[in-house]
Amino acid sequence: MAAEGSLRVDVLGVPVDNVTMDQAVEVVDRLVRAGAGGLVVTPNPEMVMAARRDPELLAVLREADLAVPDGVGLVWASRLLGRPLAGRVAGYDLFLRLLELAARRDYRVYLLGGAPEVAAAAESRIRKTYGATTVVGFRHGYLTAGELPAVLDAIRAAGPHLVFVGMGSPRQERWMGRNRSALAKMVLMGVGGSFDVIAGRVARAPEGWQRANLEWLYRLVREPRRLRRQLVLPRFAAAVLLARLGRRRAGRKEAQGHR
């Protein structure tokens, strides 16, 4: 269910909606008002590469009602592959915009994920910023299999319109895919480490770094342990270049066949 007039762009087998931030908010608003639930994902290069070796993750990304390009690498890849995206739609910024939407339209929100103290701090900050009635429940993300039924019951009892799941990828996508039917009337969105940021536990990159599309580099400088995760970027770039080469060869063969 992409924004009206938008197209889905294929990036190495993962569909990404060609939407702006405003259009993404409109899509989620329509999903909530429709009352049939929905799934929102935020692909980035790391997630795309993980999906190539994880069929369950790939299935969730393909079944999502809205997939926004969270990483600038996806924008670069789309342009190289000849189907350019309008631009990056940062998952954290969309999360904040949806909290504003919830406050404006009286949508109920549930937070699921993060460490216990992070979940509580995020809930407190959101209540202070967006209104005391916005959050109708929260639960940290350290769940055991035995706790799952009670957690689902608690979410259903709270009756939220929006459930933000901050468990990190691919765990949060798998969780949403497996439990989507149990929360059928709710819109689920994976928000990664957004609870840590809104709770003030993790600093986001300054605006200058964000405008230069170097937020990933800022995080790497601040958290050198992320280097291992960032090593996926060269592999992503290589895969995109190979895909581009393959498309060019296919195009030449097709042109020769019509001569």
The total domain count is 1
* Principal-axes shape call: globular
Structural class: alpha/beta
Helix content: 40-55%
Overall pLDDT, averaged? 90
| β-sheet strand percentage | 5-15%
The helix count comes to 13
Strand order of the largest sheet: 4-3-8-7-5-6
Encode the helix/strand succession as letters: EEHEHHEHHEHEHEHEHHHHH
**What composes the largest sheet?**
6 strands, parallel
Task: Report on this structure.
It is a single chain. The protein is of the alpha/beta class. It has one domain (8-238). Helices cover 53% and strands 13% of the residues. It has 13 helices and eight strands. The chain has helices at residues 21-34, 45-51, 55-63, 72-80, 91-105, 116-130, 148-158, 171-179, 194-198, 207-211, 215-222, 227-230, 232-257, and strands spanning 8-11, 14-17, 38-41, 66-67, 109-113, 135-139, 162-166, 187-190. Strands 4-3-8-7-5-6 form a six-stranded parallel β-sheet, sandwiched between helices. Strands 1-2 form a two-stranded antiparallel sheet. Helix 8 (171-179) links the parallel strand 7 and strand 8. It is globular.
